[in-house]
Amino acid sequence: MNKQYRDRVRVSFGVLGPVAAWDPAGEPLALRGPRHRAVLARLIAANGRVVPLGDLVTDLWVAPPAGAVASVRTFVAALRRAIEPAKPPRAAASILVTSGPGYALHAATDDVDAWRFEAVLRAPAGVAVLAEALSWWRGPAYADFPDDPWARGARARLAELRLQAVEALASARLDAGRPEEAIPDLDAHVTEHPWRENAWRLLALALYRTGRQADALAVVRRARVQLAERLGLDPSPALAALESDILRQAASLHPADSVLGASVPAGPGPDGSAAQVWANAAADYNRIVGGGARARLDSTVGLLRSLAVTGGGGLVAARRHRVAAITAAEELGDPELTARVIGAYDVPAIWSRSDDPAQAAQVVAAASRALAAAGPAAAMGSASAAGSASAMGSASAAGPASASGLAARARLLATIAVETRGLRPGRLEEAREAVRLAREQDDPALLAFALNGLFMQTTYRAGLARERDAIGVELVDLAGRHGLVTSEVLGHLIRMQALGALDDFGHAEAHAEAADALAARHELPLVGVFTEWFRALRLSLTDPSAAEPAYRRAAARLDGAGMPGLENGLLDLAVLTVRLRRGLPATDGDYGPYEPWVRPLVLLGKGRPAEARQALRSTMDPPPDLLTEAMWSLLARAADALGDEEASARARQALLPAAGELAGAGSGLLTLGTIPPPD
User: Fold this and answer.
1) Could you tell me which of 632, 621, 634 has the C-alpha nearest to residue 655?
2) Which of 15, 518, 547, 604 fits 540 for a cystine, CB–CB 3.0-4.6 Å?
3) Predicted TM-score of the model (pTM)
């Protein structure tokens, strides 16, 4: 191979979270669909060893279809184009190589985050190195493939290594005389992994060394209870010895550079370190709030709201911890607390497909239980005054519904509206009731959340762009007046989408720019995902030949963004819409959940009209989401091409309320052109 070319190739890969790849400048590479990423992830899991082609086929499909081998070769070819775009035409691949009966990934250890992470843990490492290594994690390892058998071993090994790294970092901080920095991470660590005795020991030792002897003893006793209740075990000799040493203030517990066993908590330092401020505040929270479950759960939800808007890893982590917080609240048997924990997670939602439908169903079920416990009057605010939780089941037991009870009901209803987006039957009435109750409470943040729920339910038929725009108008005004930054961003994005559907791209762009400005000022990186896709949509209308590269750049922003409900199938669908508007036939692609509505056109493109007609007639109505007009338009195109008057009339009838609008542009992502008026 040409040596100069080889020296330029330095792509890096990530599986400590969603599968991703970055070019030498650190920009994300577009890896196309889930199976393309599965091939890459499978090769990374093999640690450079050759994976036979037959094994890849078996790993990618439970029941491999005809042509599976050819499909894998196509996936490999597409990955090579993404990974080595500058490779000379006849040069052999240098990274994803063909070797004997299969393929292997030839990459340096430093170029794969999982390999690099394992290498760090094989050698002695200090605080800075371990902290950096843990920062490489963007979510669970191989997050795209939680149930795939081939990923289980690698995922389990990496998860265990991560737990060891957390404890190694805590130990390094203790050795460095910085116990206050170890406490927040260790406290979260033992909460999630109560069987880790070494973590309990380190947490108790860190508390002791910050002068918190009573808290250190309480931690050892918490560990004893957890081990006994969960595993039926007594504490290990090391943990029991630590308890004894704390009681007698043994000299062995004191590091050489401490005074009386209590290191002086460091201040923010001459550079005003934000990290140190956070560590000190978290340590004080642990000391003052203690183990109060209710206070901690209330605080946790506030933290998760902030975490959810920080980027893809934060969004994934917030979703995971949210369900744990709801479960913990329900276990305490306090319906009022449960309602608060569920309803306080008012993170703005802009996309009409859930990222995790199973989790959304869990949240909806919990919210429904909380509503049932509250009774029709939702007299939550006066339940405690009534002296018993049973008072919440009856309005008469607690008197008239209190303002806080009605606000809690509004939050639960809004939560249900947000979490059931894109589903049938819809929850429009719940969304409207949430808005009505929120208006009565004079609570701007509550009203903003309720309006978000109403927006999510305003996709129940085609042609609702003006209604969604009206919601965006109110959100921008309300949030702007009351300093609700994330809700103001949501309002601008809603208007960007709705005005795009109405072919008013000048004003839509103004709202995209406003959203970008707020995102830059307040560190909201996920906003740029939506505005970049919107600009690719605009470009597709003015310069179709440049649209596909723009869409691929936009798709790269989705890698690691933590939004599978948006990402899945979107790139190939967007490229398809450009092809169809240019009069080109539909081709095979990774269309994800949109495949049923694309299939008739793909079959037509292959010259198989009989199969296309059968697929058209068996296709169900599209789901009620922001792409419903686009899906109906795909069916209308196929019906017209096949001369199927019945299917054509069905699609045209569904699209009638949106006549004159741009099909799909209400998504802010793609369009199939103007929906024609009725004949």
Assistant:
1) 632
2) 547
3) 0.60
